[in-house]
From TrEMBL:
Gene3D superfamilies: Phage gp6-like head-tail connector protein. This is Putative phiE125 gp8 family phage protein. It comes from Microvirga subterranea. It comes from the Bacteria.
Amino acid sequence: MNPIQVEGPAVEPVALADMKAHLRVDHDAEDALIEGLTKAARLMVEAASRRLLVEQTWRVALDRWPETGTLLLPLSPLIAVESITFVDASGGSIAIPPERIDADAMSDPPRIAVSDPPQPGRARNGIVVTVRAGYGAAPGDVPATLRLAIKIIVARWFENRGDLAGDQTLPPDALAMIAPFRRARL
């Protein structure tokens, strides 16, 4: 079950103006660099915390329903289940009605159960679950501590371009800020 991103975030958790203020940059010459570093830092924080920061749409394909009847999503925090479809015996894609889907976004990991789940008509990737995940659509929805971790990472990269050695990719203070939000592996 490998998640596939369908739609990335519309905004970054830290706006360009906020990042420039944090870096004390008052010109536009390095805007593209700062935006690129901000996106890379968001991806690093998402990887370290195993959580999506800003609302994104993802798709997960399954071969069959879990034996427990409950699908544990590798994406957190869950905002909504957009759809669950399955391939029937004739090869057509059929959507499961929303009233048959029970999503528990508050659990960690998020859980999805389908009442009377139909068996897919093909052996591989016969079930497709599409979800929206993240803390919310706006930068302010992301916890302030994680936004600060992004600022610290970007500042480190901005001031030490190409000077990082070894496996020290994230500053220790940023890692400490991320730690309370880190999801356990499934």
